[in-house]
Amino acid sequence: MRLALIFGGRSAEHGVSVVSARSVAGALDPARYEIVPMAIDRQGAWADPETATRVLEESGDTPDLVMPFKGTLRLDQRLIGGDFDVVFPVLHGPYGEDGTIQGLLEILGLAYVGCGVAASAVCMDKGLTKRLLAQAGLPTAPWVEVDAARWARERIPVEREIVELGFPVFVKPARLGSSIGISRVGRPEDLAAAIEKGLSHDRRVVAERGVDGREIEVAVLGSGSPEASVPGEVIPGHEFYDYEDKYLDDACELLAPAPLRPGETAGARRLAVAVFQTLGCEGMARVDLFLDRSTGQFLVNEVNTIPGFTSISMYPRLWGLSGLAYPELLDRLVALALQRRGRGSC
Hints:
Dna Ligase, domain 1; 37% helix; 13 strands
């Protein structure tokens, strides 16, 4: 089976993507899969085939050891030929996890691993995600959405709405990952600067009431009847789980499985599956939750449709603890991609 493995990309998680791709390539059975590496540089240009192969083979096992490379192509022409059974995009954030690469693969008629165009786009947009979850009656922290045009003409009413949420408030770009552009705001006089910071990354921001909660993550796999893994827990090393905590230091702690009571574990798994189905996800997603310390209630934080796939990433770790080893997990994801294509749509 020929499998195109796409990695790198413009996102701040470029290095994580390359390391994830190395892990995926190493875990796929060489007797079953012929892997064709395709690399996208940090500016969005595609590398030539030789460079893509070298980056995959010679990069280190941590994001800081990823081989720097420069692409020269607007698109890897091998994709247009379509001589693949399946494509595995291991890309994070904008231009990878937001429906754009999925739309390209749909146009080319290629089967691909992971969520489709609509679910990818919705889950990347924190405001849209929250609106759909609220409409379905699924719990999420109270929020206010602000676009650049409204902020320019109605600053005082906007600030008043956000103050009514209560402090602390987290201000986030609506369509960005890796905790980039996020501010924790503890007092009204700091709101404007946080909104300006968020709007410097996106034309819309989401201001969300802070939750004093434990950060619980659940891996979901499947299509018509998705399954949830045992939950894991992230214990931030900083004030919140920010970019430095995720990628630049070792201050955070990952607990897998999460130390939860049986009823909490079951509740987290049920909620994760409900979120996955409500947002139209297919294949895979990692659903991030808060367990509110004051109420004992789970709240949905966000959904990652292309989670990390490094050897220590939570998604494969949680499935390993749930009885599905990494190579078998990849086989399941490929099989799900081919089944979706067989239903008449990629």
